[in-house]
Amino acid sequence: MRVTLTPIHRREHGISGTIAVLQDITEQERLEQSRREFVANVSHELRTPLTTIKSYAEALDEGAMDERELGQRFVGVIRNETERMIRLVTDLLHLSRLDSNQAPLRRQQTNMPEMLEEVADRFSFQMRKKSIRASVRVEDDITTVWLDRDQIDQVLDNLVSNAIKYTLDGGRIEITARRMHARAAGSMPEQSDAYPSSERSSRPGRTEFATRASESGDQGRQEPSSIAISVKDTGIGIPKRDLGRIFDRFYRVDKARSRSMGGTGLGLSIAREIVKAHGGSIALDSELNEGTTVTVVLPLLTGGETS
Ligand code: ADP
């Protein structure tokens, strides 16, 4: 709380009173703190690859270049680190455009089954390499949806690439789309009855969506019927203590692991911003060593609406 006192002067009486302004600066401080953290994170994330590039370039200069195999390996490291920096800067620019509303939605009629099949196809090579089986299921009555195809593709790419990264060889990934009935504004809509009951039931001791980190972009607004797209994997899962911060920029359960897989720690934050811009919500449900499900709920618009 900041208190500012301003004396009120009257010519004939001197000071005749005081105006006290009580300002709640908790929110301001919190924003300032998160801005400082963000800058520190960006600097650190850029410094790490730069330091690696510098030391490998020096080693090449000091003789490693003369040994063909070693030289090639070092050049490979430099290339990988450079690519990671490019990915990081691209993600940062994307986030900044989303933050300043410079990425307006270009909605178009989108064929939902086709869009989900295509995302699975884009990753089929990576999945085959890890012997991961994938399935795509879309409820029969879901056909076209009014959304920004490029941006939602990006969300799906992030989710599926995470599912692959954090799933061990031989695992399974399921991509599904189902209708949801809105219960109340700001809450996760109920699942449609048309959804197979085997998928709907919870495992013993686990409530559906019970341990989830959820971010909603349309709190306080009554939603019409929505569509829920889920990417479910049988991967390593996320410890409960990390779920609350999983959508934060640069937050990673295991930084070293994420980096070694080429991650920037910004994928889920970008997904959240894009989904928010669509007036939707994103939630993550995870069980350590069992798997993770990320569900994106989008308002079911048929065309012409703005959100
Ligand atoms: P990254 O580039 O590190 O993957 P993200 O923002 O996409 O960044 O994800 C943040 C963190 O959330 C990851 O580093 C990882 O720890 C965790 N995570 C995301 N998706 C999954 C998943 N499907 N399974 C397990 N952990 C996940």
From TrEMBL:
Residue ranges with Polar residues bias: 213-228
Alphabetically ordered keywords of this record: ATP-binding, Cell membrane, Kinase, Membrane, Nucleotide-binding, Phosphoprotein, Transferase, Transmembrane, Transmembrane helix, Two-component regulatory system
Main location per the UniProt record: membrane
Domain PAC: 1-37
Location in the cell: Cell membrane
Residue stretches making up the Histidine kinase domain: 41-302
UniProt protein name: histidine kinase
Native source species: Paenibacillus rhizovicinus
